Amino acid sequence: MNRLAGEQSPYLLQHADNPVDWWPWGPEAFEEARRRDVPVLLSVGYSSCHWCHVMAHESFEDEATAALVNDGFVAVKVDREERPDVDAVYMEAVQAATGQGGWPMTVFLTPDAEPFYFGTYFPPEARHGMPGFSEVLDGVSRAWHERRDEVGEVAGRIVKDLAARSLAYGGDGVPGDEELAQALLGLTREYDVKDGGFGGAPKFPPSMVLEFLLRHHARTGSEGALQMAADTCEAMARGGIYDQLGGGFARYAVDRSWVVPHFEKMLYDNALLCRVYAHLWRATGSEPARRVALETADFMVRELRTPEGGFASALDADSDDGSGKHIEGAYYVWTPEQLTAVLGEADAGYAARHFGVTAEGTFEHGSSVLQLPQDPEGGALADAGRIAGIRDRLLAARDERPRPGRDDKVVAAWNGLAIAALAETGALLDRPDLVERATEAADLLVRLHLGEGARLVRTSKDGHPGPNAGVLEDYADVAEGFLALAAVTGEGVWLEFAGFLLDIVLDQFTAEGGALYDTAHDAEQLIRRPQDPTDSATPSGWTAAAGALLGYAAHTGSEPHRAAAERALGVVKALGPRAPRFIGWGLAVAEALRDGPREIAVVGAPDDEGFRELRRTALRAAAPGAVVATGLPDGEEFPLLTDRPLVDGLATAYVCRHFVCDAPTTDPELLARKLGR
Fold first, then answer.
1. Strand ranges, E, within 420-543
2. 181 Cβ partners below 8 Å, 6+ apart?
3. H/E element, 455
């Protein structure tokens, strides 16, 4: 009997009809393993994971393999996006034991949830140096029954080692100019001068590092920092990792030149990159940056927005190629013949040159991923118009293809990132509809993820809250989104909600001395309490919390919140100079702290043109981490508006640090100069 049919997770539901007798994560599964005296097979993945689908088809849908699993194990399936705590704990064990990680993650546990054998993807038969999955099942089962003492010793040693890895504290004091300069130097050494980005293949969008570079430039004037950010953004936007027809970014490129992506499209990547490109436009006025920011925002709204107003987690990499086979990238790639069928001979040749489609192909089976190796021929308006028409026709034809699957669950943290991105992009680029979509997503989080309770839930789907408690990144990223929305809308209720969430961070996620845990004090106890300050594909909960705490303190003058942010940044002082690629968001928050951050209050009547112009100038300020409060003088919604009168009856702006302000101004140009370096 497969027990996944009643679950909410699209990933678990994908396995509901497997012949494997899956259990969801929970005490009942481990009690069953104890009753049967068998190990637990833990399989962790997510719905848009290509290799998860491959292993499911090869092994979990195979009757003979399923019989081996069912006879010798209690099989537990986990969606890593629903339970990032479970994923983090066992992934740490996998990486420590094997030197690498990834999904699907395959771990064998004792009935006490202690791991003793690890892997990721296993093929059905041995190949490329990997054992076949059936061999692994047989070997683990024999070890369990014939060498139980040895298995127990290994499991105990692993658990003891994991427990010793707890991070008491990252360092003393906050990062200063020296640490931030060292971090920049480290990034310069790892920078790929030819193709942008950092390191080699596979190459991931360095979203959080880019935000640090833009903030560092805004604070110090470093042209090198700006150049690395701008060149990386251009390389990604021209590459196959960016969807040249529909907008939005794939998860990563398999090569160092951004040509061939791993085609799954994640909400979090697109939210983070949308914000980066909007901030790049703010710093440089770059028209391509503006275009990519808006196209990415439109992609999120068009393809990821749910009927309830939130944003779905991801689109799959795989889709039906038209013959019934699910092939990675089938929805996105083109051959010259396919271009001709849609566009005709003349336009097809032009489009092939423009998008880098070749007879040999840049992907598999002679197909090509669309790129933008050069601007329209000659750069003339006629060529730009011709390309726009070609894009529209190709996009319409692509829409007729079988679409990739969509994981419709709404993850609180990632929706917080999307709210911040859409709110800021909408405000910066005069798209009020994007601010409306951000507000609707925020309303959903309040209504469903907070609801009548006092705590945040991690996920919802189809208008129903999920069963799992929010983790640190949920509280931090949702607070970040609410703070951005407060600045853009002038509605103080979002500041109140952010404060509510951050008070829970202080109460439930903070250890003595200022270290942060990824799970609450009263959360389910795993073999260790997860705690990781380093970024992965998203900001770590630790550094995201530091940023939100700092922003809230700037809005309210709260010393407890500022002190908590500064204590959390101790880890950035320790890790930033040594591993800047892996703590980019922490470095970005440190830039905000070094700058103050600036507190901007704009007072006046909402329908006054002078007020609107000052507000627009304030929101377009590149000052790192600046907070903006707008409204009537002495408006009760924002503490920053208290005792901020009009000057000569005109709308007025105040620029402050720690609630100590420069002379007020009614002149937008003077305000812009005040907000420069």
1. 459-461, 464-465
2. none
3. none
User: Please, are residues 492 and 500 in contact by the beta-carbon 8 Å criterion?
Assistant: no
Q: Pick from 38, 3, 33: which is nearest to 17 by CA?
A: 3
Q: Compute the distance between CA of residue 256 and CA of residue 192 in angstroms, rounded to an integer.
A: 9
d(CA 551, CA 562): 8
Q: Tell me: the pLDDT tens digits for 147-197?
A: 989 988 988 888 888 777 665 555 578 999 999 999 999 999 999 999 999
CB 120 within 8 Å of CB 105: yes
* 601 bridge partner residues: 629, 654
| Number of domain units in the chain | 4
Residue type, 399: D
Query: Is residue 169 situated within a structural domain?
Result: no
H-type helices in 239-321, by residue range? 267-284, 287-299
Domain-located, residue 292: yes
Of 595, 630, 662, the one marking the end of a domain is: 595
Same domain, 209 and 241: yes
CA-to-CA dists, residue 419 to 297, 440, 486, 625, angstroms: 10, 9, 11, 16
Q: Decide: 383 and 377 in contact? Cβ < 8 Å.
A: yes
Are residue 473 and residue 545 in the same domain, yes or no? yes
Structure tokens at 381: 């308006």
- pLDDT band, very low/low/confident/very high, at 101 (cuts 50, 70, 90): confident
Name 343's Cβ contacts closer than 8 Å, sequence gap at least 6: 351, 390, 393, 394
User: What is the C-alpha to C-alpha distance for residues 23 and 28, in angstroms, rounded to an integer?
Assistant: 8
**What distance in Å separates the CA atoms of residue 552 and residue 479, rounded to the nearest whole number?**
9
C-beta of residue 623 within 8 angstroms of C-beta of residue 595: yes
> What does the block give as tokens for 639?
């503490």
- Residue with tokens 């192909």, as numbered in its chain: 361
Number of Cβ within a 10 Å radius of residue 629: 27
Q: What pLDDT score was predicted for residue 319?
A: 87
User: Does residue 535 share a domain with residue 430?
Assistant: yes
Q: Return the pLDDT at 377.
A: 54
Q: ∠611-616-620 over CA atoms, to 5°? A: 150
Q: Which residue has the tokens 């389910």?
A: 524
| CATH classification at residue 500 | 1.50.10.10
CA 563 to CA 546: how far, in whole Å? 10
pLDDT category at 376 given cuts 50, 70, 90 is: low
**In this predicted structure, what is the pLDDT of residue 263?**
94
DSSP code at position 596: -
Among 571, 568, 536, which Cα is nearest to 80's? 536
The answer to the question of residue 516 being in a domain is yes
What are the C-alpha distances in Å from 505 to residues 207, 249, 285, 482, 508?
24, 31, 37, 15, 5
Residue 261, preceding bond cis, omega within 30 degrees? Answer: no
**DSSP secondary structure letter of residue 303:** I
User: What pTM does this model have?
Assistant: 0.95
Same-domain pairing of 93 and 209: no
Q: Which domain holds residue 352?
A: 332-400
Coil, strand or helix at 203: strand
Contact 604, 648 (CB under 8 A): no
Going from the C-alpha of 627 to that of each of 266, 638, 656, the distances in angstroms are: 28, 11, 10
Residue 83 has pLDDT above 60, yes or no: yes
Confidence class for position 55, pLDDT limits 50, 70, 90: very high
The string of pLDDT tens digits covering residues 594-624 is 999 999 999 999 999 999 999 999 999 999 9
Q: Residue 530: is the preceding peptide bond cis (ω within 30°)?
A: no
Last residue of a domain, one of 400, 434, 460: 400
Phi first, then psi, for residue 388 (nearest 5°) are: -60, -40
The answer to whether residue 517 is domain-embedded is yes
**Are both 41 and 132 inside the same structural domain?**
yes
pLDDT exceeds 70 at position 367: yes
